[in-house]
Amino acid sequence: MFSVLHRLGTAGLALALVFGTAAVAEETASATAEKAETTPVFDLGVVEVIAKRPLATSTVEKIDATTLREYHRDDLSTALDLLPGVAIQNVGQRRERLISVRGFSSRQVPLFIDGVPVYVPYDGNVDLSRFGVDYVSEIVVSKGLASLLYGPNVLGGAINVISRRPTQPFETSLRYTSETGDSDGTLQTRVVGSIGGIQGNWYGHATASYVNAEGYSLPDSFKPTVNEDGGTRNNSDSRDLVVSAKLGYVTDSGDEYALSYYRQDGDKNVPPYAGRAAGVQARFWRWPYWDKQSFYFTARNELGSQATVRWRAYYDQFKNALDSYDDATYTTFRRPYAFKGSEYDDYTIGGNGDFEWRWDARNATRIALHLKQDVHREVDAINSPSERSEDLSYAVAIEHVYRLTDTVTVTPGYSYTVQDGQEADNAVNGVLVPFDTSRADAHNGQLVVNWTATDNGTLTAGVSRKTRFPTIKDRFSFRLGAAIPNPALGPEAALQYELDWTQRWNSVELRAALFQSDLDDAIENVTVARGLCTAPNPNCFQQRNVGKQRNRGGELALGWAPTAQWKFDAQASLLDRDNRSSPNIRPINTPEQKYRLAARWQPQRILSLRADLQHETKRYSTTDSSRVAEHFTIVNSFIRLEPVPKLGFEFGVRNLFDELYAYEEGFFEAGRTWLAQVDYRY
């Protein structure tokens, strides 16, 4: 831990030298108040709140809608990348954008929208680049000490996307954005519109966005390979339509009810491998549709002056289809790895609720119940039978806030979670044969202490033990012939420690955190006899609970707003991951260091300029280090003009220096991209 402190201190000194006296937060207090007026939070979607104030059980970080707009973070993956300790991951062969939080993957840090789980039942992941953020009021990220009230599987934290709630009788906005590469025509257009308002006890809000991407341009420094000739990335086009709508009612007594709908319709193509590593077989994949939709009902009822009940009921659906072609002509399906008509049809139905009792000014208790049914249905190819898998999971959690003194708060918590396998089919020569299913349970606990040491300084210390159940894919998938299923696979557990300090001096804010997570019974691939698998590759594996891992590191956020015209942000993230059971196995898809600098200058009301820089160290793409995504530095810059209030024009550039970089070796990201935008708000 001393080495982490030393490196964190060195990083902090370097950032301070860049920005002067030290400094950051993503927003100052005055800026936060201003943003709250323009992006009101949908309170029914908040999870970590107790006694009508933020729950003291975790260190929670937030990204508001104004920050997302200012830095043109248009999807969930790039939005979350604004935070320290978070790194984008790209599953290149599937073109899926995931994230890691302090070394924990998206499967271990589930996604919620307004407190409703929306991760895919089959594998626990969801492609975050398909989720637009135009309907968002704020994104709440809870890391190692995330509240147990979220329910099952919050092993490494939780991400809660909170939608907007109107505050005016009539609100509307419209935005059009166009992006192009250095030498190509328009590569992407985005159109976004919203409308909403309040009439008496009723309120409503709807947002729609459409993105048409013809692909993206590679940097000029890219050297052609067998499957990529440069210029516009091969097979990189996609389309996405996102609709979000909400209708709510508030009674005269203060109870509130809301019906919400979210829909994502998309199709995407997957660029083939463009690296030079030996033994990597290029895939020629296309998703003709990638669709997701959610219906959910949320409510809050006040039971006298001391009790509150919050409850949610939801139905979440995910459908997609995948075609795997022979080659880059994308016309035939003759080779062993080729197939057409692989379809997933998944859904989750469930609900959760919590009861809060405020004993007195110093004590409050909250009890939460969760129940959900996950169903996965798939057809492997045309004329194949439909396989069905089903899990039933439920949880009960309790947290109590006890204010020992005016400055010290203690919050213990406990939860009991269960995963009950109901059904799992296996298609053998066109006949469905059931797998054996099983039941698993887990106990989770957490203790957090908050000390308000000074008028503007808070120290948080905590320890937790949390678990994650294996997904349907973890237990039952043959991985296209490369693996042997393990229906008896059990949950993995992590013991986590965190120390967090937050301090504010007028326009300066500092946050520093140290953390360590010890993961036991981690799910790892274990090599088994080659003859047990059917895929044409040299490895055959089975997933088992044999791993021991350790994630430790530190985060530093410094912020300074010396005047109303200037604002500076800076971050440093350090991560050390060790596979303690197999020290020679490299941790993949996470950089050891990540730094971010940002500056905003608004010399006049009508003009503002913004720039941000992000540097990440190398990351391994394979556990034997044969493939490495090299370190990179990305610079973005934007200028905004508002000639009249509510009407804005923006111009900017992403990846200013045309850096050739990748989150996974061989799957390169976009080069320099120019942006133009016009928007109107009323």
List the main descriptive attributes of the protein structure presented here.
682 residues, Maltoporin, Chain A, 22-stranded antiparallel β-barrel, five-stranded mixed beta sheet, 37 strands, 6% helix, disordered N terminus
Account of the 3D structure:
By secondary structure, this protein is mainly β. It has one domain (2-681): Maltoporin, Chain A (Beta Barrel). Helix content is 6%, strand content 56%. Residues 1-38 have low confidence and may be disordered.
Percent helix among the residues?
Answer: under 10%
Q: Count the helices. How many?
A: 5
Largest sheet: 22 strands, antiparallel, barrel
* Total number of distinct structural domains: 1
**Proportion of residues in β-strands:** over 45%
Radius of gyration from the alpha-carbon trace, in angstroms: 25 Å
* Level-1 CATH class name: Mainly Beta
CATH topology: Maltoporin, Chain A
Give a count of the beta strands, DSSP E runs of length 2 or more: 37
| Average pLDDT number | 91
Structural class: mainly beta
CATH hierarchy: architecture: Beta Barrel
Summarize the structure.
The protein is mainly β and about 675 residues long. About 5% of the residues lie in helices and about 55% in strands. The protein has a single domain (about 1-680), classed as Maltoporin, Chain A (Beta Barrel), CATH 2.40.170.
